[in-house]
Amino acid sequence: MPLHAAVLTLAWPVLGEQILGFGVGLFDTWLSGRISSGATAAVGLAAYVAWLATMLFGVVSVGATAIVARHWGAGETARANAVANRVLGLGLIAGGLYYALIWPLAPYFAAGLRLEGETFDIAVRYLRIDGLGQVITAMSLAGFAALRGAGDMTTPLILGAGMNLLNAAASWAFVYGVEAIGLPACGANGIVYGTVAARTFGGLALLATLASGSTRLRLLAAELLPDRATTARVLKIGLPAAVDGAIRWAGHFVFLALIAGLPLTAAAGVGSAADDDGETTFAAHIVAVRLEAITYLPSVAWGAAAATIVGQSLGAKRLRRAKAVGHVAAGQCAALGALISALFLLAAEPLVGFMHLDPAVRAEAAPALRALALCQIPLTGSIVYVTALRGAGETRVPLLLTLAGMYGLRLPLAWVGGVWLGWGLPGAYLGMFGDVAFRATAGGIWYRVGGWWRKEV
């Protein structure tokens, strides 16, 4: 079909999946906001570490999409299906390695953000329990990535919908308890109990769906054990993407640590008791970036559509179509970014008011959300172009862009704006703007002239 229509057709199911996932994350933050600012800080840290897990699992999922799409576009459906099965096994291995690491490292993550007392305990328990669910998540992400490489965006949407709705319902039940079935109230710990239950359900549902033969790819037990050739191909593409994610996450963690040490602005009341350990500033940041995640929804969706079309077009030897799709997807997504920017500028107070009960957190988060409005259009470009490049198997250049943007711009500018100039949380977001603006511009230029279409997968 025409390229604009093809991008929209492939993007909307991913957008639906992203909206549901965003709703769950937003719901978890909303639930924690009914408990305490400490619970919000703990859940926010867990969300960042879960994001690290997702990026590390990109070592499998990025390679899965690129390789399956290339075979599917070339009409080699049997080879595409074999790769899809083997990446499921690789996903389980990646998830197990993550769980083995997060158990001993959880206290260090919490201490690195200066969490103390009950907040520290909640965060450590959350990370360790969540790590168990990430084992299944790694396999699910690999399976979803393979399905998208085959052009099937609807199955991940349906399975993700069930998983995310169950997550919200189960988290509510565990937090507040259900007397009728004898389930006790678990407080902040209940949020992660619901998450692990939903992820387990989602992984089992994915395997059942693939085994049923109702999708473009099919589960074959004999093909689940990874072989050397497939593992080498996946690692060749996915390892730079995972390193990119780890480096970007490490920069974000330093960024978070900087934010956790910022004083409250005058609007929130400098010197308030809540500011003793930066807990209010950090909670305000978590509220603001949870809302900013609205922009990630279309960005990831349009990026996934572009990656699928790029990979399939290269497999089918349709070079002109592969070169054009990234620009089409970035343009469509930038229009949505402009609408989200306007929403943040015009409705900051009611948005943060809905998210948290603490007046100090609200007062700190509202100006921060307005500052984030400046980042939304370049943010869409930085995600779409990089994801499109990965669809061709080009993962090394995005890694270099991350290094330059994160460590050359985001962190230095965040210190200048937040600490040196004393502008607090909105000032720290100067670094965020510099980073995403650079990566959007440089990524767009490389997509036009970089020669990525000659990449072998």
The share of residues in extended strands comes to: under 5%
Structural class: mainly alpha
Largest sheet: none
Rg computed from alpha carbons, rounded to a whole number of angstroms: 21 Å
Shape: globular
Overall average pLDDT: 87
Tally of DSSP β-strands: 0
Distance between the termini: 26 Å
Please trace the helix and strand order, writing H or E for each element: HHHHHHHHHHHHHHH
Number of domains: 1
Assembly type of the shown chains?
single chain
The helix content is over 70%
The number of distinct helices, counting runs of at least 4 residues, comes to 15
Describe the 3D structure:
By secondary structure, the chain is an all-alpha fold. It has one domain (3-454). Helix content is 81%, strand content 0%. The chain is built from 15 helices and no strands. Helix 2 packs antiparallel against helix 4, helix 8 packs parallel to helix 14 (396-420) and helix 9 (279-315) packs antiparallel against helix 10 (319-346). The longest helix has 37 residues, at 279-315. The protein is globular. It starts with a helix and ends in an 8-residue tail after the last helix. The relative contact order is 0.13. Mean pLDDT is 87; it is low at 266-277.
Summary, kept brief:
With 457 residues, the protein is an all-alpha fold.
Secondary structure blueprint with pairings:
Elements: H1 3-33, H2 37-56, H3 58-73, H4 77-112, H5 117-149, H6 154-176, H7 189-212, H8 228-260, H9 279-315, H10 319-346, H11 348-355, H12 359-372, H13 376-391, H14 396-420, H15 424-449
Helix pairs in contact: 1-2, 1-6, 1-9, 1-10, 2-4, 2-5, 2-8, 2-9, 3-4, 3-5, 3-8, 3-9, 4-5, 4-8, 5-7, 6-7, 8-14, 9-10, 9-12, 9-13, 10-12, 10-13, 11-12, 12-15, 13-15, 14-15
